Automatic annotation (TrEMBL), chain A:
<feature type="domain" description="Phosphagen kinase C-terminal">
    <location>
        <begin position="24"/>
        <end position="256"/>
    </location>
</feature>
<dbReference type="GO" id="GO:0005524">
    <property type="term" value="F:ATP binding"/>
</dbReference>
<dbReference type="InterPro" id="IPR000749">
    <property type="entry name" value="ATP-guanido_PTrfase"/>
</dbReference>
<dbReference type="GO" id="GO:0005615">
    <property type="term" value="C:extracellular space"/>
</dbReference>
<keyword id="KW-0067">ATP-binding</keyword>
<dbReference type="InterPro" id="IPR023660">
    <property type="entry name" value="Arg_Kinase"/>
</dbReference>
<feature type="binding site">
    <location>
        <begin position="209"/>
        <end position="214"/>
    </location>
    <ligand>
        <name>ATP</name>
    </ligand>
</feature>
<feature type="binding site">
    <location>
        <position position="93"/>
    </location>
    <ligand>
        <name>ATP</name>
    </ligand>
</feature>
<dbReference type="Pfam" id="PF00217">
    <property type="entry name" value="ATP-gua_Ptrans"/>
</dbReference>
Automatic annotation (TrEMBL), chain B:
<dbReference type="GO" id="GO:0016301">
    <property type="term" value="F:kinase activity"/>
</dbReference>
<dbReference type="GO" id="GO:1990170">
    <property type="term" value="P:stress response to cadmium ion"/>
</dbReference>
<dbReference type="InterPro" id="IPR025542">
    <property type="entry name" value="YacH"/>
</dbReference>
<dbReference type="GO" id="GO:0008270">
    <property type="term" value="F:zinc ion binding"/>
</dbReference>
<keyword id="KW-0418">Kinase</keyword>
<dbReference type="GO" id="GO:0050897">
    <property type="term" value="F:cobalt ion binding"/>
</dbReference>
<dbReference type="InterPro" id="IPR036876">
    <property type="entry name" value="UVR_dom_sf"/>
</dbReference>
<protein>
    <submittedName>
        <fullName>Protein arginine kinase activator</fullName>
    </submittedName>
</protein>
<dbReference type="GO" id="GO:0005507">
    <property type="term" value="F:copper ion binding"/>
</dbReference>
Length: 358, 175
């Protein structure tokens, strides 16, 4: 299969990078945790109770006037997928590793553009997730809220007047909402201001963590900012606070970029072009190096230092070069060394395709 | 098959261990397995939000040490009648077994919620279909706030309309 076809089939809406503030914000996600009343949470549910939950959601989906976002949505059972297929869904951020590996009767409802994924029998019975490109947490919340209302007309949730939506983990109780925004902050990282920014963010009840990295390490300068508090605050306030903080981070990143341009333009140009050169020609690339180089190239594109490559190169390649994707494209299992070779090949081919084509 | 540890929940973890050359079979439910520190294949060992949480929960135990033994033992005896989870199991795993656990452990949860969230009461969304009276009460609260704002601005016509609406809702609530 040509790379063009493969990426068309493989990419979700959010990776195409068309959204507000998409020069810095990759994606916005809202997740609502819900449980059905009268049944134990997935951790303690028996096999028949768990499969009953899938059946109830399936039944709800069969009813008339589905919301537009769920039009043609499909329910997929984890048991029907191969390990590799599950892995690809995890790499696309559509399901969690927990659902893929540990759930009993785990399932996911996926909309065709993959903006909506509803996990069933993860840590909670139902987890509604909406994923939008760029800075759109408000839009993601609106859609999640609408889907939640639609399900609630057909299913009875575990809800308490004082404690709100009851969840398996006490860190989700109340609103059950986790809103998160993925941001690319290379200039703040290069100028070492990022570590000063984080304590301020944690103080207002938000959390920041690196993604694709081990522990706190952020590969490719990608960070996820999300709310920690779910009880005692209104959803709208949580979303507003998150959006406000992210807007400030964008501003800081912009001023760090301007400063880099002022004080060390040549060095910066050298760095991004070196990375571009390596991505265009290397024969072996670890995922760590690939992410770092992609981050440099993306910065170069955003700052107008590299031309002729589209800005979504990082969004797309960071997903396409994950192990699951590489193996799916190769149609075989690959060990780490073979993956590094395939990764370099995929990136070379992708970049030359982007140079010629669009 | 029932869990051989608690004898209540279905066993979901089956494994064989060789201890001092002797083969032993185990059939445990997830709760007891976690409590015994057995890890499922592919499960991440080590540091997680749940470890962190159970750290928070166990603080209670440390504080309770200086108190009369009665209070400590009474909290250990807390048990959810619906799913069988005990408070001490909950404090180790950091997860509830079912929605009734919230009622069963209610007396111990406010300090936990305050530590995690800084609050103890839900102020967000209420389910449309089943939220019934709570939804109405929230609406009345909102209207009352608007009412006093209108009165301050001396918009009496609008205020009167709001007052009638509040009365209507109040009647609905009392019926």
């Amino acid at each position: 299969m040509s790379l063009q076809r493969f990426t068309q089939d493989a990419l979700s809406e959010w990776m195409r990078g068309k959204g507000p503030r998409s020069d810095i914000v990759i994606s916005s996600r809202v997740r609502l945790a819900r449980n059905l009343s009268g049944l134990p949470f997935p951790m303690l549910a028996t096999s028949s109770q768990s499969s009953d939950i899938v059946r109830r959601v399936e039944e709800a989906l069969r009813s008339d006037n589905r919301p537009a976002a769920l039009d043609k949505a499909e329910l997929i059972r984890m048991d029907d997928l191969s390990d590799l297929e599950k892995r690809v869904l995890v790499e696309k951020h559509l399901i969690s590793p927990h659902l893929a590996e540990e759930s009993r009767h785990g399932a996911v409802v996926l909309s065709p553009n993959e903006a909506v994924s509803i996990m069933i029998n993860e840590e909670d019975h139902i987890r509604i997730q909406c994923l939008f490109p760029g800075l759109q947490p408000q839009e993601a919340w609106k859609l999640a809220d609408e889907l939640d209302d639609w399900f609630e007309r057909r299913l009875t949730y575990a809800f308490s007047e004082t404690t709100g939506y009851l969840t398996s983990c006490p860190t989700n109780v109340g609103t059950g909402i986790r809103a998160s925004v993925m941001v690319h902050l290379p200039a703040l990282a290069m100028t070492q201001q990022i570590n000063r920014l984080f304590p301020a963010i944690t103080q207002v009840g938000l959390a920041v963590r690196g993604i694709y990295g081990e522990g706190s390490e952020a590969l490719g300068n990608l960070y996820q900012v999300s709310n920690q508090v779910t009880l005692g605050q209104r959803e709208e306030d949580i979303i507003e606070k998150l959006t406000g903080v992210v807007r400030q981070m964008i501003q800081h990143e912009h001023s760090a970029r301007s400063r880099l341009r002022e004080i060390s333009l040549t060095k910066l140009e050298d760095r991004v072009h070196r990375s571009y050169g390596i991505l265009s020609h290397a024969r072996v690339l670890s995922s760590k190096e690939a992410m770092e180089r992609l981050s440099d190239v993306r910065l170069g594109i955003d700052m107008g230092l590299i031309s002729g490559v589209s800005a979504n190169v990082m969004n797309e390649l960071m997903v396409l070069t994950q192990p699951g994707f590489l193996q799916t494209r190769a149609k075989q299992r690959l060990d780490a060394e073979e993956r590094d070779i395939r990764r370099a090949g995929m990136i070379r081919e992708y970049l030359s395709m982007k140079r010629e084509g669009q | 098959m029932q869990c051989q540890e608690c004898g209540k929940r279905p066993a979901t973890l089956h494994y064989t261990k060789i201890i001092n050359g002797e083969k032993m079979e185990f059939h445990l439910c997830e709760v007891c397995a976690k409590e015994k520190g057995e890890q499922m294949a592919g499960m991440e060992a080590g540091f997680s939000i749940h470890n962190l949480l159970s750290g928070l929960l166990n603080l209670d135990g440390q504080f309770a040490e200086g108190q009369p033994a009665r209070s400590a033992s009474s909290s250990e005896g807390l048990r959810c009648k619906t799913c069988g989870l005990t408070y001490s199991q909950f404090s180790k795993i950091g997860r509830f077994g079912c929605s009734d656990c919230y009622k069963a452990f209610a007396e111990r949860l406010d300090p936990l919620f305050r530590r995690v969230h800084g609050h103890t009461t839900h102020r967000g969304k209420v389910p449309e279909r089943t939220g019934g009276k709570l939804r109405i009460r929230r609406e009345i609260e909102r209207l009352k706030q608007e009412l006093s704002a209108r009165i301050q601005k001396e918009e009496f016509e609008e205020a009167a309309r709001l007052r009638d609406r509040i009365r209507e809702l109040q009647a609905k609530l009392d019926s």
